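lol forgot to send this yesterday, sorry. struct tokens for the thing we talked abt
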């Protein structure tokens, strides 16, 4: 279950599971209105997320691009070592902040 919490322009997102093709439509549908309504700092909390597929990576990149277009930013926190390695290998950590769990 996806959880959103908001404090002003900061929005925390807890996907509640892996970010894969089967759940992307729900996540995308919930993210768009948040950005449209003034969310400018979206923080994805990846606690408990063990896998992100190419569709999930595409969603994170699209979210980053949407936020960059309105002066916002994307952050990823509590990434596992494997996910941190994935972000680094894809050089996504050069586009948005990625922090490891712990």
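and heres what i got for the seq, position by position
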């Amino acid at each position: 279950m996806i959880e959103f919490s908001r404090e002003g322009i900061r929005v925390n997102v807890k996907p509640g599971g892996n970010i894969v093709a089967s759940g992307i439509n729900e996540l995308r549908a919930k993210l768009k209105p948040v950005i449209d309504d003034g969310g400018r700092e979206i923080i994805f909390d990846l606690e408990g997320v063990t896998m992100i597929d190419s569709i999930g990576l595409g969603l994170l990149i699209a979210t980053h691009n949407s936020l960059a277009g309105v002066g916002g930013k994307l952050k990823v926190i509590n990434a596992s070592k494997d996910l941190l390695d994935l972000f680094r290998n894809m050089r996504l950590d050069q586009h948005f902040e990625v922090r490891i769990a712990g």
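The chain has one domain: 3-100. anyway ping me if u want another try
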